[in-house]
Design brief:
mainly beta; 20 strands; 2 domains; elongated; disordered N terminus; six-stranded antiparallel sheet; binds calcium ion; ten-stranded antiparallel sheet; EGF-like domain
Length: 383
């Protein structure tokens, strides 16, 4: 028996329709009949495509055939899967996916559309998959390694900030982060400490394991710290720049600073942190970067990480700072890359009144000598 299978794609209406035509040799087709007894419905239609439409609009229909004389038979099972092929009719198999129509033409070519995995949907115009929640690729088959890859993958154009899965190559498992997919070039956020957060009083005077694994809820506009192990896996998978955004309660501007080639090594080094340089990041710089479309302050954030390049991470129970006489993390009441100790305390407590600055306060020294920092967040963007 000769059997040739042509597969066309009909992208149709509410569901994808895959058309399979089975041609068999004339001898095996001598006694062909349509299995009308097993059809749950028969309809009069004008032509083959109307039969496809009927099936695609009927949630009970899994396959259908058109007998060539205006009768369409609908089946609740896949009638192509007969062990002994008996029919020379065109059977349509309907699969669930929201799409619109495209028809293969000459019967000799095969039109294929991607199978969209992980809840991806087929775009009706381009016949490409739209992926969600961090999946990318032609079939939404893999998880992006960081938010920047997702941002430039084409799957998340103009998506809003939200939660996505990432799988840095250095990470053993995927994990959830907040990504900027809208206006900040695909940033992977790794911390927020802000009076504007939904949980501004989140306790941050925590031990090594908490800072290693993360704390706070990974939600949009939620105070959190994703964990220095995750920061290590992101920055060691490929080069990233660190962007720091801070606001104080005098200027009330969201000002930014960029630290190039920010990298955190593994736990055996106590998560040693390095960067290659610190630069202003103002509207001038942002305007030259097509990923940044949101207006930001024209005044840059100052550099308050001077002296911290090369520091190890410390918490109150793991003193890795460079001041033998002090425990910086215990004094500052938050984990950070301290030297002896630091001109910033991103994981300090938010204070909005009184004289700045008590040592355990959230601060960014260069800009807030006479004010209080009320908001800070940090994100990573791949080179
Ligand atoms: Ca010390």
């Amino acid at each position: 028996m000769i059997q040739i299978t042509f597969v066309f794609l009909l992208i149709s209406f509410s569901r994808a329709v895959f058309v399979e035509y089975r041609y068999e040799s004339p001898k095996s087709c001598e006694h062909l009949t349509v299995p009308t007894a097993t059809a749950y419905k028969s309809l009069t239609v004008d032509w083959m495509l109307d039969c496809v439409r009927q099936c695609s609009h009927d949630s009970s229909c899994l396959s259908a055939t058109f007998d060539g004389s205006q009768t369409c038979f609908l089946f609740s099972d896949d009638q192509r899967n007969c062990s002994e092929p008996k029919y020379n009719h065109v059977f349509f198999v309907v699969e669930f996916a929201p799409v619109a129509m495209m028809l293969g033409s000459d019967g000799t070519s095969t039109v294929t559309a991607p199978t969209c995995l992980n809840n991806g949907t087929l775009d009706p115009v381009s016949a490409t998959c739209q992926c969600y929640k961090g999946y990318i690729g032609d079939n939404c088959h893999r998880i992006m390694m960081d938010c920047t890859e997702g941002f430039y993958s084409g799957h998340y154009n103009n998506h809003y900030n939200g939660l996505y899965l990432i799988k840095p190559t250095a990470a053993s498992e995927p994990f959830q982060v907040q990504c900027n997919m809208k206006d900040f070039g695909g940033g992977t956020f790794f911390m927020m400490n802000s009076q504007y957060a939904v949980n501004p009083s989140l306790t941050r005077n925590l031990d090594w394991n908490k800072y290693k694994d993360g704390f706070g809820e990974i939600l949009v506009n939620s105070a959190n710290w994703i964990g220095v192990e995750k920061i290590h896996s992101i920055t060691s998978s490929r080069p990233h720049h660190l962007f720091v955004e801070a606001m104080d309660n005098i200027k009330w501007e969201r000002r930014w600073r960029k630290y190039e080639h920010f990298k955190v090594e593994d736990e055996s080094t106590n998560y040693r942190m390095t960067y290659s340089g610190s630069f202003p990041w103002t509207q001038t710089e942002a305007s030259a970067d097509p990923g940044w479309t949101k207006a930001i302050a024209s005044t840059p954030l100052g550099d308050s990480m001077i002296g911290l390049n090369g520091s190890a991470f410390s918490t109150f129970d793991r003193d890795n700072d460079l001041d033998a006489a002090r425990n910086c993390a215990r004094e500052y009441q938050g984990g950070w890359w301290y030297n002896a100790c630091a001109d910033c305390n991103p994981n300090g407590q938010i204070k909005t009144s009184g004289n700045a600055s008590s040592i355990n306060e959230l601060y960014w020294e260069t800009d807030t000598i006479n004010s209080h920092v009320v908001h800070i967040q940090m994100m990573l963007i791949a080179n």
